[in-house]
Design a protein that fits this description.
heterodimer, A: 446 residues, alpha/beta, D-Maltodextrin-Binding Protein, domain 2, 2 domains, 8-stranded mixed β-sheet, 4-stranded mixed β-sheet, globular, B: 295 residues, mainly alpha, MetI-like fold, 13 helices
C-alpha cells in the first residue's frame, strides 16, 4: 500500500515537473520559434502559427493605439553612451509629447549581432537601432530594413550633409537616417606637447623620435597602429583601400602596402597599439598625443587633461596628399515590421531627428558632429574646436564602406597590420597571405 | 502486466530529464545539422533552400594544411597542458597533505581562487596585468632588471607558452582539489605498513599513492583533457580578439573553425564546419575513453 502511494506520488511529481517545465518554456519556446519562423519558412507549423498570432496581435494593438491617438512607444537599440542617447530621446520626446509618441533607447552589447537575431522578430526585437553605417549592406541584403525614403520625404532631409546621406545609402536606396558622424582626430595634451603641432607626417615622426622613450614608458604620439580603422588615414592618403565598392579587397595593392610600410615606422614608437594601452597612456599623461575619436573625450576630460584638437587632414604625407581618415556615420535604421506596425510614429521620430535641434544638443553636450548642416549655424556649435576639426575632416574623409563584404574585411586587415607591426613579418608576404584570406572570407559569405 | 509497468516506470521517472536534455542538447545539434544542408546566409536569410551536401564539400575543403597545422597545435597544446597540469597538481596536492604543514586550510582556500574567477575576467586581467608591454608585471620586472620590453603574445612560441601558463593557472586549482580529495581516500594504514617495511617518500608515492589515485583521477583527467582540447577563450582573447590582435598566428581547431566559418555570417557553411568539428571531437572522445579503459 505504502509502495503504491509512493509510486503514485512519484508519478504525480514527475508529471507536474514535466508540465511545469513545458509551461515555463511555452512562451519563450514560442517566441524563439517565432524568431526562427520569421527567418525560415520550414520551421514547425505550430510555432509559426503562434508567432503569426503574436505578430497579428501586436499589429492590431499598434494600429489601434495609433488610430485612436493613444501612446506609442518606439524602442531603439544602441551601444553608445547612455547619457547621450537619453539626451537624444529627450529632444524627441519633448517635441512629440503632444502626439503621445515616446522614443526609448535601450543599450545592448553587440547591437549588430542582436539585430541579426531579432531583426525579424516583431515581438522581441526593437523598432529601430542606432549604429555606424558600415553594417548597412548586410542588413539590407537580409531584407530586414525599411528604406527611410519610404517613411520621410526628401524635403525633410535636405539639410543633411551629402556625405552622411551617401553613407546611409546602399544600392541607390537610402535605408538609414544619419544623426551624427565621427572621424579620427589628432588629440594632444596641451601641457605636454612642446611647440607647434607639425603640418607634415615627416615632421611629426621627427618629433616622435625625439620625444619617445619606450623603456621609461613615455611617448610622443600613440595610436592603435594595428587597427585598420586607425591606419585608414595612411592607407586612404596613399591611394590604397581595404575594399573597393565592387567588393574587391585591396590589401596587397602597392599603395596599401606602401601605406602599411610607412605606418610601421610610426608603430615602432607607439607602444603595443592596443586600445586600452593607448588610451591609458594618454589619460595618465604618459603620451603627449593620441589619434582617436570623440568617444575618448569624456574619459580624457575626467583625467583633467587640457585637450587640444587638430584634424588629421592637416597633416601632409610624403606623397603630397593629406591623411584621410574614415568617417563613421551614426544612423538610425528602421526594422520592416516596425515600419508596418508603427509607421506614423516612426515617421514623426525621424522627422524630429532630421531637424537641427537634435544635432545641436548632441554637439553641445557630447561633441558630436551633427549630420544636419543647419546645426553648425548655432554659435556654440560653430565655436566647438572638436566639431570644427571633424567638419574639416568630413570634407576629405572617406565614408567606411557599407557593403556586406566590409564586415569580413576587418579581421584580415587587422591581422595583416599586426603581422607587420607586431610580428615583424615582411609586408609583401603578409599582404598576399591576408589578401587570400580576405578573398576566402568573402567567398564564404555566399 | 506488473512486469511491463516495472519496465515503463523508470522511463517515466526519467522523462523530464530526457525532455530537458532533448531541448538543451539534442535540439541544437539536430537544428545545426538541418541548417548545414541549406544555403542560409546573409543573402538568403528568409528564403533559404536545401542545397544537399554542398556545405560539407566546402567544409571538408577547409581541412587543408592550415587545419592540420591547427590540429597538431591542438594536440601539442593538450598534451603539454595535461602533463604539466597533472604533474604540478599532484606535487602540490601531496605537498598540501604533508604532515606538519600549518595553515593548510588557508592555502587550500587561496588555491581555489583562480578557478572561482570568471574566465573572461581572468584572461583579460592576465593580458593587461601580466603580459602587456606597458603595464604588465612581467615587463615591469624585465625593465627593472635592465632588459628591453618584450611582447609575449606577438609570436607563436611565446604566445603558446603564455597561453599555456594562463591555462595552467586557471585549471590547476580544480585538479589540485580533485587530487586532494582522492589523497584523503587512501587508507593511511598502507603508509604505516610501508614505513615499517622501510619504504622512503619516493617508494610510498610510487607504490601506494599513484596506483591508488589512478582510478579515482581517471574521469577528472579525461574531462580536463576535453576542456583543454576544445579550449577557445584563452587563445582567442589573448591573441585574436577583434581590436587587440596580437600578431601571433597560433590556431587551435576551434579558433580555426571560428575564423573560417563564423565570421562570414554563412550559417549553412558554419553549421557544416561545426558538424565536422563535432564528429572529430566525438572521435577523439571515443579514442580517449578506449585508452582510459585499457589503462
Amino acid at each position: 500500500m505504502r509502495k503504491n502511494i509512493r509510486t503514485g506520488l512519484s508519478l504525480l511529481l514527475a508529471g507536474a515537473m514535466t508540465a511545469t517545465m513545458l509551461t515555463g518554456c511555452g512562451q519563450s519556446m514560442a517566441d524563439d520559434a517565432g524568431a526562427a519562423t520569421a527567418t525560415a519558412d520550414n520551421t514547425a507549423d505550430i510555432a509559426e502559427e503562434t508567432t503569426q498570432q503574436t505578430e497579428d496581435s501586436t499589429k492590431e494593438q499598434n494600429s489601434e493605439t495609433q488610430a485612436s491617438g493613444e501612446a506609442v512607444t518606439i524602442t531603439a537599440w544602441h551601444d553608445n553612451d547612455e547619457a547621450m542617447m537619453n539626451a537624444l530621446a529627450d529632444v524627441v520626446n519633448e517635441r512629440l509629447a503632444s502626439e503621445n509618441i515616446t522614443l526609448r533607447f535601450e543599450k545592448k552589447a553587440d547591437v549588430t549581432g542582436q539585430i541579426r537575431l531579432y531583426g525579424t522578430d516583431a515581438a522581441n526585437g526593437p523598432d529601430m537601432y542606432l549604429f555606424a553605417h558600415d553594417s548597412l549592406g548586410g542588413f539590407a541584403e537580409m531584407g530586414i530594413l525599411e528604406p527611410v525614403g519610404n517613411l520621410i520625404s526628401a524635403d525633410k532631409e535636405k539639410d543633411l550633409l551629402p556625405m552622411t546621406l551617401e553613407a546611409a545609402s546602399y544600392k541607390d536606396e537610402q535605408y538609414l537616417m544619419p544623426v551624427y558622424y565621427e572621424t579620427l582626430l589628432f588629440m594632444y595634451n596641451k601641457d605636454l606637447w612642446e611647440g607647434d603641432i607639425p603640418s607634415t607626417t615627416e615632421e611629426l615622426y621627427e618629433y616622435m623620435v625625439e620625444h619617445t622613450d619606450a623603456n621609461s614608458g613615455t611617448y610622443a604620439l600613440v595610436n592603435q597602429h594595428s587597427n585598420s580603422y586607425n591606419v585608414a588615414p595612411f592607407i586612404n592618403g596613399f591611394g590604397g583601400y581595404i575594399i573597393d565598392k565592387d567588393a574587391n579587397p585591396g590589401l596587397n595593392l602597392q599603395e596599401t602596402k606602401d601605406a602599411i610600410s610607412y605606418n610601421k615606422k610610426f608603430a615602432e614608437l607607439q607602444a603595443d597599439g592596443d586600445y586600452n594601452t593607448v588610451t591609458a597612456l594618454f589619460s595618465e599623461g604618459k603620451a603627449a598625443a593620441i589619434i582617436g575619436g570623440p568617444w575618448l573625450v569624456s574619459g580624457i576630460k575626467e583625467a583633467g587633461i587640457d585637450l587640444g584638437i587638430k584634424s588629421l587632414c592637416d597633416f601632409t604625407l610624403p606623397n603630397g596628399e593629406v591623411m584621410t581618415p574614415y568617417s563613421g556615420v551614426q544612423c538610425l535604421g528602421v526594422l520592416k515590421y516596425a515600419a508596418e506596425n508603427k509607421k506614423e510614429a516612426i515617421t514623426r521620430v525621424l522627422e524630429v531627428l532630421a531637424e537641427p535641434e537634435a544635432g545641436i544638443t548632441l554637439a553641445k553636450e557630447f561633441n558630436c558632429a551633427p549630420a544636419n548642416t543647419k546645426a553648425y549655424e548655432d554659435a556654440d556649435v560653430a565655436a566647438n574646436e572638436m566639431i570644427l576639426a571633424m567638419e574639416k575632416s568630413a570634407e576629405k574623409a572617406v565614408p567606411m564602406s557599407n557593403i556586406p563584404e566590409m564586415g569580413v574585411m576587418w579581421g584580415p586587415a587587422e591581422s595583416l597590420l599586426a603581422a607587420v607591426n607586431k610580428s615583424g613579418e615582411d609586408v609583401d608576404t603578409a599582404a598576399d597571405k591576408y589578401q587570400e584570406e580576405a578573398l576566402q572570407a568573402i567567398a564564404d559569405m555566399h | 502486466m506488473k512486469n511491463s509497468r516495472k519496465k515503463f516506470t523508470p522511463w517515466l521517472y526519467n522523462l523530464p530529464a530526457f525532455i530537458l536534455i532533448g531541448i538543451i542538447v539534442l535540439f541544437p545539434i539536430l537544428y545545426t545539422g538541418y541548417i548545414s544542408f541549406t544555403n542560409m546566409n546573409l543573402y538568403h536569410w528568409q528564403d533559404y533552400t536545401f542545397v544537399g551536401a554542398d556545405n560539407y564539400v566546402r567544409a571538408l575543403g577547409k581541412l587543408n594544411s592550415d587545419f592540420f597545422s591547427a590540429l597538431w597545435t591542438t594536440i601539442g597544446w593538450t598534451a603539454a597542458n595535461m602533463i604539466l597540469d597533472v604533474g604540478l597538481a599532484y606535487i602540490l596536492a601531496v605537498g598540501l597533505n604533508a604532515e606538519g604543514l600549518r595553515a593548510r586550510r588557508i592555502y587550500k582556500t587561496l588555491i581555489i581562487f583562480p578557478w572561482a574567477m570568471p574566465a573572461y575576467v581572468s584572461i583579460l586581467a592576465w593580458r593587461v596585468g601580466m603580459y602587456n608591454t606597458e603595464f604588465g608585471l612581467l615587463n615591469k620586472i624585465l625593465v627593472a632588471l635592465g632588459f628591453e620590453k618584450a611582447d609575449f603574445l606577438s609570436k607563436n612560441v611565446p604566445a603558446f607558452l603564455s597561453c599555456m601558463v594562463l591555462n595552467l593557472w586557471m585549471s590547476l586549482p580544480y585538479m589540485i582539489v580533485m587530487f586532494d580529495g582522492a589523497l584523503q581516500s587512501i587508507d593511511r594504514s598502507m603508509y604505516e605498513s610501508a614505513i615499517l617495511d622501510g619504504a622512503g617518500a619516493w617508494q610510498k608515492n610510487w607504490y601506494i599513492t599513484i596506483p591508488s589515485l589512478r582510478k579515482v583521477m581517471a574521469p577528472v583527467v579525461i574531462m580536463t583533457t576535453f576542456t583543454t582540447f576544445k579550449q577557445f577563450d584563452i587563445v582567442y582573447l589573448l591573441t585574436m580578439q577583434k581590436g587587440s590582435v596580437s600578431g601571433s598566428t597560433m590556431q587551435t581547431i576551434i579558433t580555426y573553425a571560428h575564423q573560417n566559418a563564423f565570421v562570414s555570417n554563412n550559417y549553412g557553411l558554419s553549421s557544416a564546419v561545426s558538424i565536422v568539428i563535432f564528429v572529430i571531437i566525438i572521435a577523439f572522445s571515443m579514442w580517449t575513453n578506449r585508452a582510459a579503459k585499457e589503462t
